[in-house]
Write a structure and sequence with these properties.
Elements (H helix, E strand, L loop, with lengths): L1 E4 L8 E4 L7 E4 L12 E3 L5 E7 L8 E6 L6 E5 L5 E5 L13 E2 L10 E7 L8 E6 L3 E6 L5 E7 L3 E8 L8 E7 L3 E6 L5 E7 L4 E7 L8 E6 L10 E4 L12 E3 L4 E7 L8 E6 L3 E7 L4 E9 L3 E7 L13 E6 L6 E5 L5 E2 L7 E4 L4 E5 L9 E5 L3 E2 L5 E3 L8 E8 L11 E8 L17 H37 L1
Parallel strand pairs: 31-36
Antiparallel strand pairs: 1-2, 2-3, 3-4, 5-6, 6-7, 7-8, 9-13, 10-11, 11-12, 12-13, 14-15, 15-16, 16-17, 18-19, 19-20, 20-21, 22-23, 23-24, 24-25, 26-27, 27-28, 28-29, 30-32, 32-33, 34-35, 35-36
């Protein structure tokens, strides 16, 4: 079992994970950036935790914890001090017992053990205090809270083997109603009468159901239902029914039958951020499915999550506070202790993988190696950057270069970029070769070409040397003639 909520008041959603018998409930505090702090906080509840619910049961502004325990162990309610430290405050059972006063469950009262599969919280009698309902193997108790962490038995609903609970105001009348997903009998709707309990609503003949969730699947504001099923009888195919509310709390034949795998858990939320409520199935096969709503049905998402150890999950905004989180509901999965728990971040497009872990790709504009004449102006052609989530992020490219066209040589221009999630692209480079400048001319009255400063320098130097050599030759001839005259005179 799993639940999510901000238990330490830091603005980020934390994870509460129920475990198998012999291991404590574990609370993982979010670090606010794609991860959770380890080791977790452990609660002294070593029962088989089959259901977890977070709600403020003592009206102190912090989320407390209700735990539904199986294997005949008592359920429990833990009060939160606001910093994520929990203390056992009550153990509701099927009836008041030792330690109770006037029918109320006193702090730390241990009552008759139950075997519960799930738990939910709501203000059923609309007195401003949170109440609790448990799904058990034989009758489902509803306890009213007094806002101080104490509870009194309000009603026991049915006698079925109930595995899942959904709570919503299905008939729009008298407060929160309840639906139980049952094994071995029809699933059942219970309508809140607003006076003294609940009246029997529709019996849903959908086969063995172990999980149920609420969402708006029919296009109106009325809450609808989707069930996760694990058939136990021969010939019962494991398809998950979606039932549409008629607006008065009535449900007809399934609107859709989704999937072909036995489903241990089911969750509803807008995965792909299109404004429609999608479904996520946690399947017994270990291959978990996303069904996206189309407005008139559902279609299987191309991504399937493979996590063989997962049997339960929670679909929620996990509250990552980094600005790079693209948004969308995320998925946490848990199950077998040896497999641990996994968090699958939404990449913003409804893909529940490890979040945006894909790096952007850089591509050069133009050639990877260019030659530039010395003395000319070098204008880089740049690069483009594409990211699978952010799209064109070319404007974020950082260019590092120092091309000096006054100096012949080879230079490297480097391009880097990161997407909004911090994934860095593999850097790319361009080689810029600054070469000696050369003029260009033409025959037949030809045209003139551009002459670089270095070439002009060398031409001037050559002219100077030629003139100097010519002058030197003239001087030598004059000296020789003068010497000849002197010899003749002698």
């Amino acid at each position: 079992s799993m639940a999510t909520g901000d238990v330490n008041g830091d603005g980020a959603a934390d994870l509460v994970i129920g475990t198998v018998a012999g291991q404590p409930v574990q609370i993982y505090l979010s670090d606010g950036f794609r991860a959770f702090v380890t080791p977790p906080i452990s609660l002294p509840d070593n029962s088989a935790n089959e259901g977890i619910e977070l709600a403020d049961f003592d009206n102190n502004g912090t989320l407390d914890l209700a735990v539904a325990n199986g294997d005949g162990q008592p359920d429990g309610v833990y009060g939160n001090d606001g910093a994520g430290n929990f203390t056992l405050v009550a153990q509701p059972g099927s009836a008041p017992g030792a330690g109770s006063v006037e029918g109320k469950v006193a702090v730390n009262a241990v009552l008759a053990p139950t075997s519960s599969h799930d738990v939910a919280a709501a203000d059923f009698n609309r007195d401003g205090n949170m109440d609790i309902v448990f799904a058990t193997i034989d009758g489902n108790p509803v306890y009213l809270g007094d806002g101080l962490g104490n509870f009194s038995l309000y009603a026991t609903l049915g006698a079925a083997d109930s595995h899942g609970i959904a709570v919503a105001d299905f008939d729009g009348a008298s407060g929160p109603d309840i639906v139980f997903a049952n094994v071995g009998s029809d699933s059942q709707v219970w309508l809140n009468n607003g006076v003294d309990g609940f009246d029997t609503g529709d019996s849903l003949s959908i086969g063995d159901a172990v999980a149920v969730t609420v969402g708006q699947f029919g296009g109106d504001a009325a809450p609808d239902l989707a069930f996760g099923r694990v058939p136990t009888t021969n010939g019962d195919l494991p398809a998950n029914p979606v039932l549409i509310n008629d607006g008065s709390g009535g449900f007809g034949n399934p609107f859709a039958l989704l999937g072909t795998s036995a489903t241990n858990d089911i969750h509803a939320g807008d995965v792909n951020r299109d404004g429609l409520t999608d479904l996520v199935f946690i399947n017994a096969s270990g291959v978990h499915q996303i069904w996206t709503a189309t407005g008139n049905g559902f279609e299987l998402h191309g991504e399937q999550i493979v996590d063989g150890g997962a049997v339960v999950g929670v679909l929620a905004e996990l509250g990552f506070t980094d600005v790079g989180d693209p948004g969308g509901v995320d998925l946490a999965l848990g199950g077998a202790p040896q497999a641990g728990s996994s968090v699958y971040l939404n990449d913003g497009f409804g893909n529940l993988g490890r979040g945006d872990a894909v790096s952007p790709v850089l591509t050069l504009n133009g050639a990877a190696s260019v030659d530039v004449p010395a003395g000319s102006n070098y204008v880089d052609q740049g690069a483009v950057a594409e990211d699978n989530i952010d799209g064109d992020i070319s404007a974020a490219i950082v260019v590092s270069a120092a091309v000096n066209t006054a100096l012949v040589g080879s230079y490297t221009v480097t391009y880097n970029v990161s997407d909004s999630a911090g994934n860095e692209a593999a850097p790319i480079t361009r080689t810029v070769n600054v070469t000696p400048a050369t003029g260009s001319g033409g025959g037949g009255g030809g045209g003139g070409g551009a002459t670089g400063p270095l070439l002009l320098f060398f031409l001037a130097l050559a002219a100077y040397l030629a003139a100097w050599q010519a002058n030197r030759a003239i001087i030598q001839v004059a000296v020789q003639k003068q010497n000849q005259r002197g010899s003749e005179n002698v």
